[in-house]
Design goal:
The structure is a single chain. By secondary structure, this protein is mainly α. The chain folds into three domains: 94 residues, no CATH class; 118 residues, no CATH class; 51 residues, no CATH class. The chain is built from 16 helices and no strands. Helix 9 runs parallel beside helix 11. 36% of the residues are buried.
């Protein structure tokens, strides 16, 4: 599910962030409005590789530029969702992880944390906390995207991957910092993260459906109900586990019946959410029986 966020938000924001280069700024800023309102997803899929080559070249020549690194993470993680070949996907993932590490390495406190001996657990924890506490509001986008792969896996993975428990405390500490600094970041993404987290993990691991619902409601409120992906996630992670078919269908139908023309700048993101909602409802009897 969180891969949908990568597909849309990642591609669009990544395209916009290419404007950090003076030479490219005019072109990308002129294009991004049209791209966001584009109705032909195939056109975007076919045209995206050009952006990938541009951003990779920018990173190659500016390996410590935070904006280019963040754009690379976003655009490559977005486009990888269109890639069917597993070997190609792996290549994309390797680049994303490499750039994420490079991006985080632009913060001295993070470098110090990485250099701290893993065998000294207390020192390692203190070094990480020092890094997190040093994060300012202006750092949120860079830190979030630097950790993006870990965040999505740890928050949505639940108990399916025991190895995630090793990084979960780190991710929650970071997410809490972002939450405290700016809970409106990316249409209320911090609330979405904690909403999904609370719904996925049992109480023994800090989860709570009640808290999850509160956070998901807040994310919807901040987004003004116009980010349909949030509603799809709400239905999948809250109503589905509770086996609440009525609530599930209601929310999915809200997504399907949303007038895309009422929010043209979010047409791509919302049209994808609508397709996802339709697909889920087509198979609803396989989930609720």
């Amino acid at each position: 599910m969180l891969r949908m966020v990568k597909v849309v938000v990642g591609f669009l924001i990544g395209t916009l962030l290419l404007s950090c280069s003076t030479m490219i700024r005019g072109v990308t800023e002129s294009l991004v409005g049209g791209v966001m309102q584009q109705k032909d997803m195939r056109l975007i899929e076919d045209g995206a590789p050009a952006y990938l080559l541009i951003v990779e070249s920018l990173i190659f020549n500016n390996p410590e530029n935070r904006d280019f690194l963040m754009a690379g993470i976003q655009t490559f993680s977005s486009y990888s969702s269109f890639v069917k070949d597993e070997n190609r996907k792996k290549l994309f993932q390797e680049k994303i992880e490499k750039w994420g590490n490079q991006l985080l390495a632009t913060y001295p406190t993070y470098v110090k944390y990485e250099q701290t001996n893993n065998d000294d657990r207390e020192a390692k924890d203190k070094a990480y906390s020092k890094f997190v506490s040093s994060i300012k509001k202006k750092d949120i986008p860079y830190v979030f995207w630097g950790f993006f792969g870990n965040i999505s896996n740890a928050v949505s993975g639940g108990l399916s991957d025991p190895s995630l428990f090793l990084i979960l405390p780190r991710i929650i500490e970071l997410a809490q910092r972002i939450y405290d600094l700016d809970d409106t970041f990316m249409d209320g993404m911090p609330h979405l993260i904690f909403g999904v987290y609370n719904c996925v993990y049992p109480e023994a691991y800090g989860g709570s459906f009640e808290k999850g619902k509160q956070e998901l409601d807040k994310a919807i409120e901040i987004s003004g109900g116009k980010n349909l992906l949030y509603k799809v996630l709400y239905a999948e992670f809250y109503y589905k586990p509770l086996y609440d078919r009525e609530g599930y269908e209601k929310l999915m139908n809200e997504v399907i019946n949303f007038d895309l023309e009422s929010h043209p700048t979010g047409r791509i993101m919302n049209s994808m959410a609508q397709e996802q909602a339709k697909s889920y409802l087509e198979h609803i009897d396989e989930v609720f029986f």
